[in-house]
Prior knowledge:
The chain is an alpha/beta fold. The chain has helices at 38-45, 68-71, 89-99, 105-114, 128-140, 158-174, 187-191, 211-217, 225-229, 253-259, 270-279; strands at 2-11, 14-22, 27-31, 53-58, 61-62, 74-77, 146-150, 179-183, 196-201, 204-210, 219-223, 236-242, 245-250, 264-267. The protein is globular, with a radius of gyration of 21 Å.
Amino acid sequence: MVSVQNLEKHYGDFSLRVSMEIPRGRITGLVGKNGAGKSTVIKSVLGLVHPDGGSVRVFGKDAPALSPEDRQQIGVALSDSGFSNYLTPGDCARILDKSYDHFDKQAFLDSCSRYGLPVNKTIMKFSTGMKAKLRVLVALSHKAKLLIMDEPTAGMDVEARNEILDMIRSYLEEQEDCSVLITSHIATDLEGLCDDIYLIDRGKILLHEDTDVILSDYGVLKADEQTFRNLDRGYLLSTRQESFGYRCLTNQKQYYQENYPGLVVENCGIDDLILLMSGGK
């Protein structure tokens, strides 16, 4: 569905060079610290940023050269985009009805009501969470084959986040062939949604792994100085020095559990990946 090969983009001292694939029917998460390059990748896929090198292909075509018909197959929810604050969801529905071939106006208005978005109230009067829900509903409204979502749950409470994730899950149950590229700073959102994860740091992909494998096989070791000196480091991906000794990332959690009975071995989450891969050695 999406193929990014040796994508290069340079901004002053920052250089991005990444390759990644988003297969049909997969939900792919892109994680990393602020400024790692996530938004640049997303905007390159959308053809909003022109690469300095490499290629970005969507539906088998160069991203900047997608036809209007191709672009109708992409649903987008970016944190810095949306309809004018002077419009209402009802106004949005009329615009979308004229813009997309597969837009179901009544279903969109029904969804707005179901998720607490008054169809005749101007967007400027919406809360942050309500605006985010509207952006996601717009992205899902025209039966897109590819969803691109940049921080769709940013700045929201748990209830609003769950509503947005439910929107996405319900849509994907109906559109099984749809592919998704999503970023989030909230690790638990991605752990419960994504099939695989790419970790980007300073413009480079540090790790690509299935989410199930991260949660089952990866672990965080906590070792004092003495234990660390005697530790087999053959399965360590990254190490970070702490006040108590060392915190280590491994993709062979069971090996250390079986061979070092006194060692503290904790389950690994996406937050641990970002912390240790981006900030460790």
